[in-house]
Amino acid sequence: MVQELVNLRSAIVEGHYEVALALVDELEGMSKQATIRNIESYLLRLLIHLIKNQVERRLTPSWAISISDSIRQIKKLNLKDNQTSYYISQEDWQSFLEENLEAAIRPASLEVLSGTLKPKQLAERLDKPQLMQLAQKLLNLTYEYSAKDLPNIIDTVLVEFPGGEEWES
Question: How far is CA 88 from CA 32, 74, 78, in A?
């Protein structure tokens, strides 16, 4: 990115505004991709914990906190600087969920049931449509609630999880 900024400065100084605008577009694209990669890292973490919850039928305090934090971070990252639009719209999560659910199975297999399942065995035990639906439900909260209200709302959803009874307010 540093080289692109040097090139941008040079293009502006030399009056090559078409080149400068092309560089601005390139930089915007790079920034968007970096933000989406960060969002996906939190989505992956979320899915790993949802997998663990589904298979083990329990919810540890650290899993609950990780789920909540992942959703809060996704909300922060996904909202563009203009505070009115998103990098990933509410309707566009399906492909991200499908791709990251598959990616989450391998690391989750190291943690679920003390690492006794191979990734393929874990994948066979999963109710993937249910996982996708639950993840989408949590992601939808990021569009419906403020950052201030989101943690308490997530807690009300966690009550519905297997082992989540203690999260009832």
Answer: 10, 10, 6
Nearest to 51 by CA among 94, 139, 110, 92: 110
Q: Are 136 and 93 in contact (CB under 8 A)?
A: yes
How many domains, the chain?
1
- How many whole angstroms separate alpha carbon 157 and alpha carbon 142? 13
Range of the domain at 99: 2-167
Q: What is the pLDDT of residues 90-137, one digit of tens each?
A: 999 999 999 999 999 999 999 999 999 999 999 999 999 999 999 999
Helix axes 61-78, 150-158, angle to 10 degrees: 140
Calpha distance 101→89 (Å, rounded): 18
